[in-house]
Predict the structure.
Amino acid sequence: MMQVRIDRVGDSQTPVVAIEQATANPEHWRSTALSLDWAQRGDYYPGPRAPAPRDYLADLTAPLRQALGKVFGWRSQVEVLRCFFSLSTTHAHDLNLAQRVPHVDSYDPNQIAFVHYLCDPSFGGTAFYRQRSTRFERIDERNCRAFEAALDADFRRLGEPESAYVDAQSPFFEQLHVCPAAHNRIVIFPGNLLHCADLAGVRLNPNPALGRLTVAGFLRPGS
């Protein structure tokens, strides 16, 4: 039976949903990952990714429908924007600047992100943040320029962050909440909530059978 937890994060009280035992056969998807077309895709994710097979999302229909309907009030069809199996492999010393700070997936307040953990708790979960200088927690078209200007000003004042994964000690961002990794747990949240994989101090492994294997999906209400 699925167990659902809802945490209300920050001043905005943004819902972050964690669902246990998200799929009936998580080992099937971990085995599937071994034969996928892995490649570096984009400049932001710290490791290779592979498009999820079509039947993957069908396996997540029940937990996604439950969260999107009851928590986020979705009643329409769901549009899947992107869905990737993801493997965190980049060493902290090799991170680019964008990978050293929390990010948002979209400025669209209606877009939802999810992370499905197919790894054990030692590989770190997902952390959520507030920008210290502005107290912004969610970034959209209205505040994105102020967010970026404040971050540039912080970098000029304090220097750019060292080449490391962001954690609760960041002088630029306050850590609000961490959803730990757990095998077959899925975490669901608005994609414009500042977040980052919680990888500080984690030993990463490039083997999908042994490393920090997750699936990241990005959804919005259909028309």
Observations:
- The chain has four helices and ten strands.
- The CA atoms of residues 139 and 221 lie 19 Å apart.
